[in-house]
Amino acid sequence: MAEVYLERQRRLHCAVHACNNLLQCRHFTSRDFDHIADTLPAISGWLSPYKSSIPGLGNYDASVVVAALLTADVEVQQFDRRKGASAIPFSEDSLAGLLVNVPSVRTLSSLLRACHLIDCRHWLCCLRTQPCEASDAEPVHEFYWLDSNATEPEMFTVEQLTAVLQLLLDDGAEIYVARRLKRAGNQQLDRKCEEEVEQDQDQAGMEPWENLTTARQRGNADQHSKLDQSPKQEPPQTTLV
After folding, report:
1. Which one is predicted more confidently, 117 or 129?
2. CA 29 to chain centre
3. Residue 50, Cβ neighbours under 10 Å: how many?
4. Would you say 50 and 64 are in contact if contact means Cβ atoms under 8 Å apart?
5. Spatial contact of 127 and 97, defined as CB atoms under 8 Å apart
6. What is the rounded distance in angstroms from the CA atom of residue 160 to the CA atom of residue 144?
7. Cβ neighbours of residue 71 under 8 Å, at least 6 residues apart?
8. Cα(241)–Cα(239) distance, rounded to whole angstroms?
9. How crowded is the C-beta side of 154, counted as CA atoms within 13 Å?
10. pLDDT-wise least confident of 148-157, 167-176, 216-225
11. CA torsion, ordered 221, 225, 226, 230, to nearest 10 deg
């Protein structure tokens, strides 16, 4: 099994954890998601439809997830559940993975839902890794089930994953397909991140993903500053695929 980054659950920040698990580093924080939620227009009333009304709790809507990953050059589209899990494009070249949104079964979430305070759902990630270039055989992708409530990643075959996802779809889950966008700027940023990680590996007390996060945050500084200066934006579209 390859070394896979798994971010653990904190409050109702599972959407943040799922996105970071997809990107394989601590790319986003709850503050990033709060900021994005605040830039999306309110639909009605004074409560935000994109996150919990309780400050710092989380429980982020799909619109926030889509907008956040777009800043990391990952496009997210909602999968048409009517097609069934067998229609998910597991072998597509640009596929980064899947984000799965299911009814939450945690004690805190169940209590809040029972009291009609929050309609809690849980986000998790299914990561598709890149195949080994050295292999002479046909490249084979590995799929890892990354749940922030779990203690370790779980590797699935496509057949196993299809069966699990179909069961979840039958139980009311929503699946989002995440694809990497091919942009020159993103490739340059990745190279810059890798160079800075190599230079910072000897820093005491820092994990590799912390160095990567620092590099990414510096590389994305201009993009975040533009977000800060921008007016309210329309929620991103989640077209069915």
Report:
1. 129
2. 12
3. 24
4. yes
5. yes
6. 11
7. 220, 223, 224, 227
8. 6
9. 13
10. 216-225
11. 150
